[in-house]
């Protein structure tokens, strides 16, 4: 009995080995077939890629982390960069690069496919056998012209989802290696990318101005560092010039004040030499009286002192005789 069990186990092991070999041969044939298909379009080929999972994240690319990218064919199709690859045991994906990225997301999928799992898109409406979702319904309505309706109606049903993501227009379909399906899907995605030219592009912040341009952006956060340094230098030069002009103006005013303070007063008027001493004394008394400031204040600060009158000898002898 033990021998029977051993034989059965050996047969099962042999059968498993045969099945693994057949699966390997099938996978090898499929990858080789993708490379041959890529050669017909002038595409390059590689067996796997780790970056595409980071570039595409929406719709059919929203899969668990263990799903890998296989059988990648990439190149240029009708003057646009294109890439075709398989998500292992999940789907075949075709992506065509657009001329410019847009913040508007357009998701056009067959009515038999589940709605998007993302929360940032809303239902716009039906277009033939397909349904459109978008994060900006007003812009999406402008895109839905007759050409988009014709594409949604005439696209083969095996192309289940068409959507935008960044600079790319992407389409997905069940896992396939059929040349006709790959050609049809590539053409549909390329036409879809052309129709999306009406989407508004991403508006980048204002570029850094030329440092030599004095008319840079008014907002400080948009100004280039070199432009800010130049502005600081210009402000400093203007402040220094203003301070120099103010100091020069103050210097001129001080010079005028000093010149006025050094001018002699008219108190000591010139007296002709022919006038006797008595007449000179009288004139001095009159001048002192004119320069004396009347008022009760006894503060003599800022007031010129008048000359004392000189007593003549004749007056002194006359007073003694009295």
TrEMBL record:
Query: Where do Basic and acidic residues bias regions lie?
Result: 210-235, 279-289, 313-322
Membrane spanning stretches? 6-22
Region annotation Disordered: where it falls in the sequence: 200-322
Print the keywords alphabetically: Membrane, Transmembrane, Transmembrane helix
Q: In the UniProt record, does the keyword Translocase occur?
A: no
Q: Does the keyword Transmembrane apply?
A: yes
Q: What is this protein called?
A: Secreted protein
Species whose genome carries this gene? Gordonia asplenii
């Amino acid at each position: 009995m033990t021998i029977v069990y051993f034989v059965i186990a050996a047969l099962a092991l042999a059968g498993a080995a045969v099945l693994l070999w057949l699966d390997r041969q099938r996978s090898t044939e499929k990858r080789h077939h993708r490379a041959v298909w890529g050669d017909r379009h002038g595409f390059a080929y590689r067996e796997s890629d780790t970056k595409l999972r980071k570039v595409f994240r929406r719709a059919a690319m929203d899969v668990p982390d263990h799903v890998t990218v296989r059988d990648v064919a990439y190149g240029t199709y009708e003057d646009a960069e294109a890439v075709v690859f398989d998500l292992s045991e999940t789907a075949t994906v075709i992506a065509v690069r657009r001329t410019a990225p847009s913040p508007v997301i357009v998701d056009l999928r067959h009515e038999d496919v589940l709605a998007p799992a993302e929360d940032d898109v809303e239902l716009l409406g039906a277009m033939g056998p397909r349904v459109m979702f978008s994060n900006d319904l007003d812009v999406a309505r402008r895109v839905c012209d007759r050409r988009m309706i014709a594409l949604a109606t005439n696209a083969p049903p095996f192309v289940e989802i068409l959507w935008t993501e960044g600079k790319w227009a992407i389409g997905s379909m069940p896992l396939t290696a059929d040349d006709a399906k790959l050609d049809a899907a590539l053409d549909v995605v390329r036409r879809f990318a052309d129709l999306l030219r009406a989407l508004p592009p991403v508006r980048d912040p204002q570029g850094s101005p030329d440092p030599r341009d004095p008319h840079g952006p008014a907002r400080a956060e948009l100004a280039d560092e070199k432009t800010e340094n130049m502005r600081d230098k210009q402000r400093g030069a203007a402040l220094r010039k203003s301070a120099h002009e103010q100091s020069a103006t103050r210097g001129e005013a001080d010079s005028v004040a000093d010149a006025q303070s050094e001018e002699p007063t008219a108190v000591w008027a010139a007296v002709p030499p022919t006038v006797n001493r008595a007449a000179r004394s009288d004139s001095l008394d009159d001048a002192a009286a004119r320069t004396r400031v009347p008022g009760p204040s006894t503060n003599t600060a800022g007031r010129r002192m008048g000359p004392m009158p000189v007593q003549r000898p004749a007056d002194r002898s006359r007073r003694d005789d009295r």
